[in-house]
Amino acid sequence: MAEDLKLTPQSNDFSAWYLEAIQRAGLMDYAPVRGCIVFKPDGYELWERIQAGLDSRFKATGHRNAYFPMLIPESFFQKEKEHIEGFNPELPWVTEAGGEKLEERLALRPTSETMIGYMYSKWIQSYRDLPLLLNQWSNVFRWEKRTMPFLRTSEFLWQEGHTAHADEPEAREETMRMLDVYADFAENEMAVPVWRGQKTPSERFAGAVDTYSIEAMMKDGKALQAGTSHFLGQNFAKGFDIKFLDRDNQLKYVHTTSWGVSTRLIGALVMVHGDDKGIALPPKLAPIQVVMIPIGPPKLREKVMEKFGPVYDALKSAGVRVATDLRDETPGWKFNDWEMRGVPIRLELGPRDVENNQCVLARRDTGDKTTASLENVISRVKMLIDEIQINMYKKALAFRNGNCHLGIETMDDLQAHIAKTDASGELVGWVLAGWCGHPICEARIKEETKFTSRNIPAEPPVRKEKCIACDKEATHTFWIARAY
RNA sequence: CGGGCUGUAGCGCAGUUUGGCUAGCGCGCCUGCUUGGGGUGCAGGAGGCCGCAGGUUCAAGUCCUGUCAGCCCGACCA
Questions:
Q1: Radius of gyration of chain A from Cα atoms?
Q2: In terms of C-beta density within 10 A (0-12 exposed, 13-18 middle, 19 or more buried), how is residue A245 classed?
Q3: pLDDT at A30
Q4: Where are the domains of chain A?
Q5: SS3 of residue A425 by DSSP
Q6: Using the CA of A85, which nucleotide's C1' is the nearest one?
Q7: A278-286: average pLDDT
Q8: Which nucleotide shows the minimum CA-to-C1' distance to residue A293?
Q9: Which CATH superfamily is domain A290-388 in?
Q10: What are A244's strand-pairing partners?
């Protein structure tokens, strides 16, 4: 096999592997605008499946979709001080239109708290208008200094939920409910295990009271924030004057939440499940679950096709997402091609199979090949789909847990751990650490090790006694890691 | 936004140091035959504003200036 047909191995250069893998899987291409990518059909279809899975969960928890403008007046950003400070550096502006300079600059939205806050103040009068539970699917813009396809681009697609509530407990409950929705989706649909927890103040969303996240471990051991849910308290209610008349005839500010996940999830999928053969998709999200490849020379093709067609029809009507590959390429070439694209199951049907009334099933996650009788191929495929989904989660979980380090207590321990893994070529992974709660200690960890705080899990695997940096009593136990 | 590297065919690269004939190679692509259960083989063929703009020169892929984009490393982030 020619070497240049292969991907750069993950262990040689993970970043190069990622960039090659997503392009050769046909997920994206670079666009002619700085930091922007095109979602090609295979990449966009993944996003559509992510959307579908999340959208039904949002609906099931009482939310409805709406759409707000992409252009946001500059004055809106002045109304929440932390918010403007957080986002100002990365806003693109529209300054003229119709050949004339605009009286007020318009930002391309980086997120919609301000626009939605403005609208909510118009819509909410009474406690009877609450809770207001909306979600928006949209694009947003953040002019990042350093871009990476799917993980950080100038424009990206996402979903942002925005809710308003009569009191704090209800808003907090919503914040946690949506964090759980994200975790459920990541683990059960994407087969990506996550730690859920609270962000430290330094990592908090600009304008939030509390930010919570789900964090996933990529195959290079780095952390990726895969979703966030914010309790915004009354910050935006006060900035945008969102008030309601309560049962007790008192005028009160609402409590708001916001929560989002983005096309970054596609990057997570690739970096969690991919291997040196390419990307690997969990069956529940894979646009194609089974690809059928006919084997054998043209002389025998007709005979093969007599069985091939009916198997395809049967799988399709059984609800399996199945595709055929009738291209004029050799089987080996097709095997590699579909493995690169991450299709969970390959079904081979050749002359020998036809004689034995069977086919060959090969799975992407393990590479195992088995034969299946054509009599029960549907049930075999369905079982495999379930098995692969579960196996991919288990593998990812074992990997994640295997690279989470619970026994590191001091900065010396941490430095020793880093030195040891650097020397041996092992992944440095994540570290569970105690923290006194002081930003100075958090900053020192980052300064000395490049580890940043990921989140503070509500129920950590181990509760730490001492702060890793200052050795004082730990008020928190948090995950620290190198992160994307 | 700072430091470094890179832009030559769809992709990966050579050529640039030392300016000079018609700009090459591998893969891919097209045609035909061949092969077909892990990237088949052979033959023929198409494809270039040498990132873009300006400059130096008799002559620029090659030298100079600017600019844009990508990657890597830092400061900022879903």
A1: 25
A2: middle
A3: 84
A4: 3-273, 290-388, 404-481
A5: coil
A6: B76
A7: 97
A8: B37
A9: Anticodon-binding domain (3.40.50.800)
A10: A252
Q: What would the pLDDT profile of A418-475 be if each residue is shown by its tens digit?
A: 999 988 889 999 999 999 999 999 999 998 999 999 999 999 999 999 999 999 999 9
CATH 3.30.565.10 fits A3-273, yes or no: no
The length of chain A, given as a count of residues: 484
Nearest nucleotide (C1') to alpha carbon of A264: B78
Give the closest residue to A334 by CA, choosing from A350, A319, A312.
A350
Cβ < 7 Å from strand B, A residues 178-237? 203, 205, 213, 225-226, 228
pLDDT bracket for residue A32 (50, 70, 90): confident
Identify the CA nearest to A151 among candidates A11, A54, A28, A51: A28
ipTM of the complex: 0.89
For chain A, the 3-state helix, strand and coil shares in percent, each to the nearest 5, are 40, 25, 35
Cα A444 to Cα A450: distance, rounded to the nearest angstrom: 9
Residues A319-333: what's their mean pLDDT?
Answer: 95
Instruction: Please report the pLDDT score of residue A190 as a whole number.
Output: 98
Query: How does pLDDT run across A72-109, given as a tens digit for each residue?
Result: 999 998 888 888 888 888 888 888 888 788 899 999 99
Domain made up of A404-481: CATH architecture: 2-Layer Sandwich (3.30)
Q: Cα–Cα distance between A141 and A134 in angstroms, integer? A: 21
Rounded Cα distance between A188 and A236, Å, is: 33
Query: Residue A4: what pLDDT?
Result: 65
Nucleic acid strand B: bases within 7 A of protein CB: 1-2, 12, 26-27, 35-40, 68-78
- Span A59-77, average pLDDT: 95
**How many Å does it take to go from CA A18 to C1' B4?**
22
Distance CA A28, CA A11 (A): 23
